[in-house]
Design a protein that fits this description.
The complex is a heterodimer. In chain A, strands 2-3 form a two-stranded antiparallel ribbon. Helices cover 53% and strands 3% of the residues of chain A. Chain A contains 17 helices and three strands. By secondary structure, chain A is mostly helical. In chain A, helix 3 (58-70) runs antiparallel to helix 7 (136-150), helix 3 crosses helix 8 and helix 6 packs across helix 8 (170-183). Chain A folds into two domains: 50-215, no CATH class; 218-278, no CATH class. Chain B is globular and about 55 Å long. Chain B has one domain: Cytochrome Bc1 Complex, Chain C (Up-down Bundle). Chain B is built from seven helices and one strand; from the N terminus they run H-H-E-H-H-H-H-H. Chain B is mostly helical. In chain B, helix 3 runs antiparallel to helix 4 and helix 5 (105-127) runs antiparallel to helix 7 (158-187). Classes of the chains: A mainly alpha, B mainly alpha. At the A-B interface, strand 1, helix 1, helix 4, helix 10 and helix 14 of A face strand 1, helix 3, helix 4, helix 5 and helix 6 of B. Strand 1 of chain A pairs antiparallel with strand 1 (25-27) of chain B.
Chain lengths: 323, 207
């Protein structure tokens, strides 16, 4: 039997109030949604803000800011579409995209915000100039030394203190960055657009926090990729995007999880799953499967029962034709 | 080549006919809860659009403004859950009944495309919420899109996500769902498989 024409030809048409049917389903959904909203409201988890992170984690904040400055941070060395780094380039397609959302972590995350802060706190300017006028080799020596020193940094009286060393202007600059973060003004310094006064593009705010701040946050652990990520809500007990179960499951496959191109692999495989679903009618064998699974016998149980009954009682067999 | 106007008139006459959209009878096999799942999915989409319009009128962060807006946001949240829940049940039903048979392949394909588009439609909604789930998933999922060469879709750009969520994706989804339902109405729901066990054997004896 051709899997695409394998249908019964004879059945009855029965009276139907289609408008009532549509209104009934609409009422059912409205009632369910209202009840769920009344009883469960919303899963609402406060976001991690720069101000909140800087205030609660001053030393890690400075370490993160220093990684942005010295180019070792995840975004600093990400690659397209943000910059020419190589740290997160998974595919040729990604390279072909080019740098369409240009982002230089050193200047955009640290030096420009500090320059803006310097306009209201001129004491920042000399240290900023010292850093900017130093050779790249000198900057790197300061950054390496201060990175090591910060591992034993302590927060006291509003500033991060480290053992004495040759860090150039970095301790002062990093503490000014911390002060900017704690003040809540960092968002204004990161979300800039000189051409318009609206602030719809919050890319730099999110990318500023996307490394250690979010990844080390206990509140995000249940949503991490290794823990089936997106299908988990920020607040336990609520549903999230559970319809992403198959792509999330693919992320758990060993060769995908261990690949440097995990995202590209998982999404590409996920797309093939969808393609198999979408092309079901035309895939030989697969398009016959439901007939052999037999679930249709349960769904059309009453139809088949009546058909059987009529076949038994009718001398010629068969039912009336709808055609 | 056929006359385009005549052909269009014939097609539109069928598509816009009250007989197509307001049937007064249905096949006997298309009865019961299993045949409400498509309508329940479409009804959820209607509730989604209505609650979404209320939210859009006051802007993306309006849900944090007061308890009334939180409630509207809650209805939007639960209607997307209902939408996918009923869509999944509908998908299982149409799969197990081989709903592509009898020249209904395009109906199936459009349903699958609607499912695919519904995923980013919902996701962009989560992204403009601005809560921790939104923040985390924006920075996590961006790597996947960037890897696929879709970096121009900037998940960390709230403005772009707002446009995608309230205009681009729902309009596309509405068109696809509209075409899917139009085909369902024009071709009706798939008849059952001829059940081999129920075929009359010789002499009309029990099978």
């Amino acid at each position: 039997m051709n899997p695409r024409t394998d249908v019964v030809k004879h059945y009855r048409m029965v009276p139907e109030d289609f408008v009532k049917h549509l209104f009934s389903t609409l009422v059912v959904v409205i009632v369910v949604v209202l009840l769920a909203s009344i009883f469960f409201n919303l899963p609402e988890q406060q976001p991690l803000t720069i101000k909140g992170y800087a205030s609660a984690n001053p030393v890690p904040f400075e370490q993160m800011a220093l990684r942005a400055l010295d180019g070792t941070g995840q975004i600093a060395n990400y690659g397209p579409p943000y910059n020419h780094g190589t740290g997160n380039v998974e595919s040729v397609l990604q390279k072909m995209t080019g740098v369409i959302h240009p982002l230089n972590a050193e200047t955009d995350f640290i030096l420009k915000p500090l320059a803006m802060a310097a306009s209201i706190n001129p004491s920042i300017t000399p240290n900023l100039r010292t850093f900017e006028r130093a050779s790249r080799a000198q900057q790197t020596r300061w950054e390496s030394a201060y990175t090591a020193a910060l591992t034993k940094g302590v927060y006291r009286n509003g500033v991060v203190l480290t053992a004495k060393g040759d860090y150039g202007p970095l301790p002062a600059l990093m503490n000014e960055t911390l002060a900017l973060g704690k003040s809540g003004l960092m968002s204004g310094a990161l979300i800039r657009n000189g051409s318009v006064i609206t602030r719809f593009d919050n890319q730099n705010y999110l990318l500023f926090l996307q490394g250690a701040p979010l990844q080390d946050d206990p509140a995000t652990q249940s949503m991490a990729g290794g823990n089936w990520g997106i299908i988990h809500p920020a607040i336990n007990g609520y549903p999230a995007a559970w319809w992403m179960t198959i792509p999330t499951w693919i992320y758990q496959w060993g060769f995908v999880a261990n690949s440097k191109a995990a995202d590209a692999l998982a999404l590409a495989i996920g797309f093939f799953f969808w393609l198999a679903l979408a092309l079901t009618p035309w895939i030989p064998g697969w398009n016959r499967l439901p007939r052999y699974l037999g679930v249709h016998r349960l769904i059309w149980k009453e139809f088949y029962r009546q058909q059987n009954q009529e076949n038994r009682t009718s001398p010629i067999g068969g039912t009336k034709s709808a055609e | 080549m056929a006359n385009w106007t005549v052909e269009s008139k014939r097609m539109l006459g069928q598509v816009l006919s009250a007989d197509t959209w307001l049937p007064t009878e249905m096949p006997e096999y298309a009865q019961g809860f299993m045949y409400m799942l498509g309508s329940l999915t479409a009804s959820s989409f209607v509730v989604l659009c209505l609650s979404g319009i209320l939210l859009a009128m006051k802007g993306p962060a309006s849900w944090t403004a007061n308890e009334a807006m939180r409630f509207v946001a809650a209805t939007h949240f639960w209607s997307v859950q209902a939408f996918f829940f009923f869509m999944m049940l509908h998908l299982w039903r149409v799969f197990f009944t081989g709903a592509w048979r009898g020249g209904r392949g395009m109906t199936w394909l459009l349903g699958a495309v609607a499912f695919l588009i519904a995923i980013p439609t919902a996701f962009t909604g989560f992204l403009i919420n601005g809560d921790l789930y939104s923040e985390w998933n924006a920075v996590q999922a961006k790597d996947g899109l960037n890897a696929m060469g879709l970096g121009w879709v900037n998940l960390t750009n709230g403005g772009q996500m707002m446009g995608m969520h309230i205009v681009v994706l729902p309009l596309t989804l509405t068109v696809v769902i509209g075409l899917h339902i139009t085909l369902v109405r024009m071709k009706s729901v798939v008849p059952p498989y001829p059940d081999l066990n129920s075929a009359p054997s010789e002499g009309g004896a029990e099978s």
